[in-house]
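EI: anyone free to look at a 625-residue chain?
SC: sure, send it
EI:
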Amino acid sequence: MQGNGFKIGAVVFFLALSLWYLFPSVQGLSLNNQLTDMDQEERSDYERENYARIESIKERSLNLGLDLQGGMHTTMEVGLHELLVQLAGERRDDAFDQVLAAADLRSQEDGVSLIDAFVEEFESRDSEASLSRYFRSEEITRRSSNADVTDFLSTQATDAIARAMEVIRNRVDRFGVTEPSIQTQGSRRIVVELPGIDDPERVRRLLKGTARLEFRLMADPGELNSSLQRIISHFEVDVAPPEVVENVDEDTTNVEPSDTTFDVSQLLADSEIDDVGNPLLDVLIPAGQGSVVFGEVSVQDTSTFNALMSESEVMAMLPRDIELLYDANPSSTSGEYYPVLAVNVNAELTGDVITDSRADFDQTTNQPLVDMEMNSEGARIWSRLTGANVGKNIAIVLDQVVYSYPTVINQISGGRSQITGLASQEEADDIVTVLKSGALPAPVEIVEERTVGPSLGVVARQSGFTSLMVGLTIVALFMIIYYRAGGMVADLALIINIIFILGILSAFNATLTLPGIAGIVLTIGMAVDANVLIFERVREEQSSGKTLKASIDGGYGKALSAIIDANITTFFVGLILYSFGVGPIQGFAVTLMAGILASLFSAIVFTRIIFDFVVIGRRGAVSFG
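SC: here you go
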């Protein structure tokens, strides 16, 4: 055993280190079993009392991939159509929209780049026309050629993908997902894998939100009430008596002052509109007099309501520069109906002035809210805006959804504002996450989504564990039958090898996936392959008449080069797979590389210590078959 002190110390050190890194995973497994045996109330109480300990165990446990614990796989596409519209801004015209629509169609049908299709379609209609009439920047002027503008648009598209990746990564990190995978796919798609997700709808909102925060004024209640009267009457034109049509025309062209206090509820009570079948009233519950609320619409009727209100005649009946947006939360009277609010189309202030935001609770009602702080410019505008609109409502709009529309009590200085009326603390946290992560450069759409339920993850874990145990058992039995005592030593090295692999994965915070388990099974075969090479060399040495000690020395010495060559080349293959692969391929590569390092150590160092201990230390004999 002389000269093996360092080897023994190395084995003990790495084994202890691996077990130390795996201990939280064992704790996590025991904790899961404990929580499973509790009812819902006991589990909630236990998790609340032991929150810090549970979170610490989860953080230090071996991470499981999407396929082993369930989660969400999402493919998103950055909207280059919307990006071109944003870059053109107010310079857009009907010709621009027609060219863009044709380019969209061609891009979908032929699979070409939208930007290339847009430029080609534009030049095909007028070869002398210049794209610089629509796009301007520091680099693009009126004299810029179409080629210069094309390069500019391509650069903006590439930057939009990169910025979208960064924003999504920041949002996912703030969401607290363990080991997410975020990769680009092609020129305009982003693939996101989020293990352990149990609320897909919340994640969809988090990923798609463009983080466009706006502070807008709202419609005058009297004008809105009058508009609502005319719009309701408009949908009765086909069935109403001629005099009703005349009254509608008069109201549309010349609204009397008395109309601004018109009560829609009185209209419904005094007329037969609700009796003859009004398509608008079939889906809308009109608001009462003196409100900035247009009405309420049920979830299932929103598409019908949107179609009715999108008619050009109907839109013209709304107060000037007013559009209708939905409230983020349902009304208090019914969880199925959402208020429709009349909001100015122009923003008085945007989220660019927000320097900090945090989730908090209202000291009076204990309801969740979001506190926001503005920079000096924003504070100045906010002070002027609130001072000029005391007694009026200001809508706080995030991504075209109204989160709150408080009434201004007095002028607000200092640049402080709040988003109230939130449904839950989670909603407050998500708004803060979106605001702090930054705005997406262009809208993103989810084009593919797969949700792996926890039960499927359990099945995958069981299948993976079964395959691992079956493979290990078959290999262990073969080694014992073929190499006898030497095979038993090799089997012990296999067990140590698996502990080393899992310890390495835990130490480097890697994620174990189903392909990763396949990598472990493959590593078992490779580890045995090293032992087979050694044992066959030992047999050859014994057949030449050498002693057992000399045969072991010769077997290890002659097999070493072949073992190292085979494992090193495979390690480089794993490195290439990890560098250029994505998702499951990377999971396979990680466990393969960890397994190669562990098998080299266990086959060359650990088994040699055992043989030296038995043959030299105990003066015993070992059979190699």
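EI: Residues 238-262, 270-276 have pLDDT under 50 and may be disordered.
SC: 👍
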